[in-house]
Request: fold
Amino acid sequence: MRPYEVFVNEQALGNAPRSGAPLQAILKFIRALADAPNTIGDFSEVDGAGRVVQVKVIGRHAITYWPDHAVCEVKITHIRPADR
Reply:
C-alpha cells in the first residue's frame, strides 16, 4: 500500500500546541498516519456527516481523523483539548 497523504483542517491548528514536546508528539502521530491510515484511535464517534471518525488522545490533546480510502488521504478534522 502506498503512503496516504495527510490533510489537517486549518481551524484544527488553532487548538494545537505552538511548540515543544506536545507539538512534536502530535506531529509524530500525524506523520505516522500516512503509513498506517487504518490506525484505530482511543475511541470513535460519529461526526456531523454521519461518518465514524477515530479520536486519538496525545498528551492533553484529542486528534479526530478519518481515512478517505477512495483518494488515499487521511483527514485530520479536529485537534482540541482532551478534556472537552
Notes: The two ends are 35 Å apart (CA to CA). The mean pLDDT is 95. The helical segments are 10-13, 20-35.
